[in-house]
Amino acid sequence: MIREVWRIELGVGVGPFRLGASIAEVLHALKSRLPVRPFEIAYDAVEPYKRDVVIDSAEDGLKLHFDPVRQTLKVIEFYDVNRVALKFGRVVIFGGDISATFMSVYNSYVLGYEGGCVKFPIPAEYRNLYQNGTDLPMEFPNGATPAATGFMVFVGGDYRSPGLPAPTKKHYFEEVEVEIGEEQTSLVFTGRKQCIQLGWSPQEVVSELGAPVSVFRKSEDPNDGATVAGGLVGEYFHNYPHLGLDILYDSMHRASKVILKTNALG
């Protein structure tokens, strides 16, 4: 039974997925669904910045394509439109128990719109009728009605070269400067005009950057920690993958190190 109904917004997104969202945002959306569906992440381990990063949710018949440099969502592709109910406006146009037959002998005809396209199967015997961009008919010569098998949402008018959407977060991919002074070292976010400093507490950092996506303790070894207020506290990281940085706090809960990274997968 289909429990979710996702809204299609051409050039914008589908359901919980927005074009321009970061990988971290999309992963959060996927993991927030109940039950969580399994998914796979594919990328080029040799040249990670040349090929798209793709998240494939087979149970949803869904692939999410990300720009390899900015790591933002640029194409939402449903290769099986019968797994999730999809509506355009107020009308549900995909989803249910409908399935195409003899898919192995079909080619695809792509009907394009600004911000999206729909794929229709074409029987091999009628393939030559639509090679020159001829409009897809309401029915084939044998009386069969074309049924959509795929759907894509993207920016622009051509699915073969989609545009790069603006990030959903205002200051995503912003320039960061490191200022090293005699008394303090600061990390300055030029877009949002905020900064953090070494020596700050987690509360001070969170007030500037927001809550971390995850927390990682450097070691569970009690000997690695220090006795604070009767308890043992070791070093730990606050991870901000969407900002490309990790912050290490010492046993006194002071920021002792900031690690800047590119977030290359692998």
Sketch the major β-sheet: 7 strands, antiparallel
SSE series: EEEHEEEEEEEEEEEEHEEEEEE
Q: Strand tally, please? A: 21
- Outline, from the CA principal axes? elongated
- Helix % is under 10%
Give the neighbour order of strands across the main sheet.
4-5-6-7-12-11-10
In terms of DSSP E residues, the strand content is 35-45%
Radius of gyration of CA atoms, rounded to a whole number: 24 Å
Distance N to C terminus: 36 Å
The helix count comes to 2
Low-pLDDT segments: 98-106, 220-232
Mean pLDDT: 84
Secondary-structure blueprint of this entry?
Layout: E1 5-9, E2 13-14, E3 17-18, H1 23-31, E4 40-42, E5 53-57, E6 62-66, E7 73-78, E8 85-88, E9 91-94, E10 106-113, E11 116-123, E12 150-154, E13 176-180, E14 185-189, E15 194-197, H2 202-209, E16 214-217, E17 226-228, E18 231-233, E19 236-240, E20 245-249, E21 255-260
Parallel strand pairs: 1-8
Antiparallel strand pairs: 1-2, 2-3, 4-5, 5-6, 6-7, 7-12, 8-9, 10-11, 11-12, 13-14, 14-15, 16-19, 17-18, 19-20, 20-21
